[in-house]
Each structure stands twice: as C-alpha cells, then as structure tokens.
Amino acid sequence: MRNQYELKSNRPTRKRADVKAKKPILSGKVLRILIISGIFLCILITGTFLTWGFFTDSKPTAIAPDQAPGKWVPDTQPPIPGDPIDDLDKKEDREEKEWWDSETNPHPIPEHSPVPSSSKTASGNTEQIIHNNWRNPNMSLQPGKPQTSNPKSQNHQEKNGSKQSKHSPPSVSRTLPSAETEGSSDETLQVSVWYPSWDRTQAARSLQNHTDLIDEMNLFAYDLQADGSIKNRSDTEVSNDETVQIAQTNGIRVLPTVGNQFSPSMLHEVLKDEEKRKLATENILQLIHDKGYDGVEIHVQPIFDKDRDLFSLWVEELASKLHKQKLWLSVSVYPKLQDPGSYPVQKAQDWKRLGKSVDSFKILAYNYSWGQPGPMTPLTWIDDILTFAKSQVPPHKIYLGLAWYGYYWDKDQGQFALKHGLVRKIEKKEIKRDENQEPYFIYQKNGKKGTGYFQDRISYEAKLKRIMNNHSEIAGISHWYLGSEDPGVWQVIQEEITSTGE
C-alpha cells in the first residue's frame, strides 16, 4: 500500500523543446537591462509568496504519534481545561444514535449547556454521569419504565403459580473453572465485551468481524423491577436473539446483564424483602432458560452502603441456584484500593463474599479522572487495583474492565463522552500523550477550547502489557463497550493475547 511519502504525480513528463539559435533583435545594453529587471521582478514575486505562506501557515500539520516515524517521546504534562468545545458533538455520524442520548442510552450524559456561575462546582456535571460513578452518583434516581421482556411479576405468580421453564438449561459455551474450583494461572487471558443496546449496528459489525477473539459477551439489556420481575431496557429482543445465535455458534459465552435502573432505593426494596429476592432469582433463571443464555451478570449501580450484606446475600442465593444447573454467574463492581472503600457505593460491595460466590468478578477500572481532564485508567492505578483485588478474590476469577471511550471537558468542568470515531472526525487537532500513553488534545475553534482524552490502539496496548507483565494470573479483561473501540485494538489482542496461548 502506498503512503503519503510514496505518492507520485500522475502528470506525464514534458520534454523540453529544442531551442534554435536566433539572431538577437535587441542591442546588448538594452538586453542586459531587461534581463536584470526580469531577475529583480522574479525575486520580488518569490519573496512575496514566501512571506505570505510564512504568516498564514507557520505551523506544520501534526502527525498522530502512531503514524509518525521514529521513536515517540511521551508528553508528561497533561493540559489544563479550557472553554467548551464548539459544536464537537455535531461532527458525529448521526446514522447511529449516541450512547449518551437520554432517550436510548442507559447511561445518559446531559446536553451541553452553560452552567450558571452560582452553581459552578469542582465536579461540574459529573453527578449526572451514571455509569461507573463511584464518587458522586445521584442516589435519588427513581426507576424508569423500560419495555417488558420478562413480565413475570409477583402478582403473576400469585395468579398462575410458579411454573418451570419448558426449555432445558443450555450448556455453558466456555469450559472454565466454576466458582467452586481453582483455575489454572497459566491459561490465556479471556476477552469479554459488553454489547450495548443503544449502538447495535456498530456492535454487531464488530462482533461478526472478531468472533474468533471474543470469549464472552454481556448483553447490556435488562433491569430488575421493584416487584422482582426482569424487564428489557428497550426493544432489542429480535436483534439480541440474532446476536446470541452468532455468538454461541462461534463458542462465545453469552451473559445478559441485569441492572437496577440506576435506582438504589428500588434495589433496596427488593434486597430487604426475602420473597422479592427469591422472585428476582427465579425470574433470572426463567430469562436464562427462555433465551438460551449461559448464565447472568449482575451489574447494579449505585448501591446504598447499608445494603452491603443484603447484596452479598442475594448474590450467594443466586449462585446456589445457578451452579446447581451449571450456569455462569458474574458480578461487576466499582474499583477500589482498600476495604471497605473510600466512598459509600464502594463500601456497599464486599469483595471477599462476592468473590467466593461468583464465577467471574469484573472490576470497572476506568473513570479515574473526574471533573478535570486526565487519563481514564493510569497504569499505576491498574497495579494498585489488581494488587488489592488479588488479596480479596481468587485471581482466576478476576476480570479487569477497561473502557474504549474517553471524555472531553470544558472550562466549567463539564464532562462529556468522547468516542474514538468522533475524535477521528475532528480536524486540525494535535495529538499528545501522557505518561500512561493515553492520547489527548486541546480543541480550539472560534476562541473556544476543549480538552479531550480518548482511547486508541497505543493506550490499550500499554494497559494490556501492564496486566500481562504484572498480573498474568488473572482470568481476563472486559471491555466497555463493543463498537466504540479503535479498530486497531483487535490486532493488539490478536498479537498479545491470542498468540501467547498458541
């Protein structure tokens, strides 16, 4: 393939015409004057053009670090936040709805709007960011009204009685150690991905292209209800069925995620009621059997710290039921470096109890920078998280969750999602990297600035190598979320993970 340095002009070479000697028409003196005048005029014109070019385009176009020749030297001075990015979100391809769209996204990020000076805080709009917010989540959110997919409720059971599924439990797609056994520390890292319900076209394309590199897929689609029923977040049943078929045909373990509608109060009402907990467990089993899933992932956030023991109890009860039928149980947790944790929602998760019950223990190791520009997952933070995790949970169950998206910030510390595909469409940006190899840029237009951090192949490779070099005994890596990634990460997975297991 040709590169920009090898491209040649397609214009045909012109041959110089033969010049025949002619008798001079003008005298030598006049001819010398004309020649000198012509030379002076050429110098004047050339100088004018050079001067104009210097003042209008004095800076060369920056080459992305992953494309520039030679050794790259990291910039260890991250930028400070500036003004809002002007019309940045309008550059996104509107064929797909953004995952932060409040109508379709389970983790909505609000529309960009000015923040009144009286309400400016260091955290900006971060309270409104729902996914993996362990610092300042909105604990007063009430349940929404997602479309029903598994409407088996307490009232339904009272009228019709408990019914067993007509479907036999599916076999587990991946032969991995259950929660009751010890795993091998020399197994190849497993690759897990979350499959979104709001960006299905991109996710489906990525799945079909990389089925040979994915071990587990988590359908981010279901929520627990106040009555113990399980409902779908959106109208995704048909596409989910097709997705599951593709995945399982290729030997990928499929787990639906069950959330709590980001309502800790609703979750509390279920957890404190023994009958509702049992009903929730039965409905999860019913969902697994009806859809042919291989198990389930419990992905609830946020949680009241007072529900620490009740949440652990429910996971233990669920594990007992699932493991009797050889079904898989996964749980996702907030990151932390000590027990019980520094923030209330971290304290709500007892890593030791949860780790004993589940088959996979997924730590959401991203969103490190909050309210101010910075890296998503510092390399030293990975070490700190996994060092603590391995003291609480058997390493063969631990999955480290990494994000494939980033954020951009405005001068008021507004924080907004930034996907790799959008970054590629921003023109005239100079990409730099911090000491974690995470790329960032300062976007300026019409006097306004914005600072964006995002993820790409290079930053992902740095994280992956850190994990493999220092924590190779863990089970695998989970990725949030499929379809939002730099396509180059799959080559890294192929070279660093798959090749090591051959």
UniProtKB/TrEMBL annotation:
Which GO BP terms sit in this record? carbohydrate metabolic process
**The keyword Kinase is annotated on this UniProt entry:** no
Which chain regions cross the lipid bilayer? 30-55
Cited Pfam families: Glyco_hydro_18 (PF00704)
Q: Which InterPro entries match?
A: Chitinase_II/V-like_cat, Chitinase_insertion_sf, GH, Glyco_hydro18_cat
- Molecular function (GO) terms listed? chitin binding
Q: Which keywords accompany this UniProt record? A: Membrane, Transmembrane, Transmembrane helix
GH18 domain spans which residues?
A: 189-500
Q: Ranges of Polar residues compositional bias?
A: 115-154, 167-188
Output compositional bias ranges, type Basic and acidic residues: 87-100
Q: Does the keyword Cytoplasm apply?
A: no
Source superkingdom: Bacteria
Q: Where is this region: Disordered?
A: 65-188
Q: What is this protein called?
A: GH18 domain-containing protein
Q: Which organism is it from?
A: Kroppenstedtia pulmonis
- Taxonomic lineage: Bacteria, Bacillati, Bacillota, Bacilli, Bacillales
